[in-house]
Amino acid sequence: MATSKAPKERLKNYKYRGKEMSLPRQQRIASSLQLRKTRKDEQVNFTLDDIIQAVNSSDPILHFRATRAAREMISQENTPPLNLIIEAGLIPKLVDFLKATPHPKLQFEAAWVLTNIASGTSEQTRAVVKEGAIQPLIELLCSPHLTVSEQAVWALGNIAGDCAEF
Asked: What are 102-114's pLDDT values in tens digits?
């Protein structure tokens, strides 16, 4: 039969034995709160005009943030503003970003935006092809960064799946 000392003996096997059990919980809550604050600070709410301005700047950090914001904009909405992205003239810049070899995160985000645009109508896919995205996407298949090459496969698949012409 179990004695009253059995739970105390079992407590010796645990990391927080003999400590106030609310302390680890408070630490987890504080850590979680800090992570949420950090993530919220990283999320900059870009408008389409902000994205256009940042993409046309000479700062690669702004390029990345704006491209990520464009990706988030067209990924989260039920009716993504693909035509607004196309009409704003962002596709040529996104194609240029595919060639930014020292910046794989930028390549990934640009490929993702182009993937989403190519998943739209035939005209939207044609806009991606017309701006010369196919060759840089093919070159990204050999990227040493798996996420970049996988995103290039998705983009090419969307383009190929739209029309045999492409």
From this structure: 999 999 999 999 9
Give the architecture-level CATH label for domain 45-162: Alpha Horseshoe (1.25)
**Would you state the structure tokens that stand for residue 123, as one six-digit string?**
């005209």
- Reported for 160-163, long-range contacts at CB under 8 A and 24+ positions apart, including other chains, are 162/118, 162/122, 162/125, 163/122, 163/125
Cα separation, 50 vs 73, in Å, equals 12
> What sections of the chain are H helices per DSSP?
6-11, 22-42, 48-55, 60-76, 82-87, 90-98, 104-118, 122-130, 134-140, 146-162
Domain ranges of the chain: 45-162
pLDDT of 149 over the 90 cut: yes
Q: Is the pLDDT of residue 137 over 90?
A: yes
What is the pTM for the complete model shown? 0.73
Cβ neighbour number for residue 110 with a 10 Å cutoff = 35
d(CA 34, CA 92): 38
DSSP secondary structure letter of residue 142: T
State the pLDDT confidence band at 63, using cuts at 50, 70 and 90.
very high
